Amino acid sequence: MSFSHKSWFRCALAGAFAGCAGLLASAQVQAADGRLKEIIDRGTLRVGVQGAFKPWSFPAPDGTLQGIEVDLGKSVAEALGVKFETVVITSANRMQVLQQGKIDLIIGGMYDTAERRKIIGIIEPSYWTSGPTLLAKKGVIKDWKDIANKPVCGKQGNAYNKMAETELKAKLTAFAGNTEGKEALRTGKCVAWLYDDVSIMADLETPEWQDYEMPVQTLFSNPWGAAVPLEELNKGWGAFMAGMAYRWQAEGKLLELAKKWNVKADAWFSEQHKKLHWDTSYLTPKN
């Protein structure tokens, strides 16, 4: 099956020219039979997001989902000219759901790690970054050493859970969702909630968490990656998404979304934008 002009046009609209060139070249082999064609034929893009992860994906008043990752997913659907559909995933099941073909794409607060790259196709460049820290009631925790041999709430599937147990000696209880984990903290079942700094900073901006604090420094910073099925990474769908991720950084969309959703964008975002932005000043005639 040949690669249609319609598909090429949609690909070009996303700015993924390098990817489209690869797609066009391999179209005679199998790219045109891959997930990209399936999405266009279906007319709907299915994106896995976490439904209780404010402000990245969380319920809107009308019952739909909203947030930074929802907006990124919508931008992909718009570039493809298809409808957008969210599928709620968890940190524990997101890779399995993608492998099972129930979604086309993960945009779900997922760290880019070497182990995950063996299982799913993580897209470069990354679109966000964060690191693990603690949310605790004011005055309870002063140092990472204070969680040793104490109950700490976490979330299933997070890459740093093992570090908390083995290196920090915390007695970790991992919950399926953020809501359950933070509720356990509030009811005194644990001394702290172990999670990403950017999410905890967003919580602390709300009156709900005014008696709590982020008492320790972030352990490390790790980029987040969108992901496609591993077998699609070097085909049309993976190349298209790489083009989208490049555009998110180069055109400043991530900085715009951080401002829209009131998230503090650290220096990493400006550095990525500066590094990937293509200087077109040569197009301006010089007198």
Task: Summarize the entry for a quick read.
With 287 residues, this protein is α/β, with parallel strands linked by helices.
Structure description:
With 287 residues, the protein is α/β, with parallel strands linked by helices. The protein is 37% helix and 18% strand. It is built from 12 helices and 14 strands. α7 links the parallel β9 and β10. The longest helix is centred in the C-terminal third of the chain and has 15 residues.
How many β strands by DSSP? 14
How helical, in percent, are the residues?
A: 25-40%
| Largest sheet: number of strands, sense, barrel closure | 5 strands, mixed
Work out the oligomeric state of the chains in this entry: single chain
> Order of strands across the biggest sheet?
10-9-11-8-12
Share of β-strand residues: 15-25%
Q: Using only CA atoms, what is the Rg? A: 20 Å
* Helical run tally: 12
Shape field? globular
- Low confidence ranges: 1-9, 12-19, 24-32
Instruction: Give the structural class.
Output: alpha/beta
Distance between the termini: 50 Å
List SSEs in N-to-C order: HHHEEEHEHEHEEEEHEHEHEEEHHH
Mean pLDDT: 88
Record the SSE blueprint:
Blueprint (H helix, E strand, L loop, with lengths): L4 H9 L3 H10 L8 H8 L1 E6 L8 E2 L5 E2 L1 H13 L2 E6 L5 H6 L5 E2 L7 H4 L2 E3 L5 E3 L1 E6 L13 E5 L5 H6 L4 E5 L2 H9 L5 E5 H8 L7 E2 L8 E3 L2 E3 L6 H15 L2 H8 L6 H10 L11
Parallel strand pairs: 1-4, 1-5, 9-10, 9-11
Antiparallel strand pairs: 2-3, 6-14, 7-13, 8-11, 8-12
Helix pairs in contact: 2-10
Please name the defining characteristics of this protein.
single chain; 287 residues; alpha/beta; three-stranded parallel beta sheet; 14 strands; globular; disordered N terminus
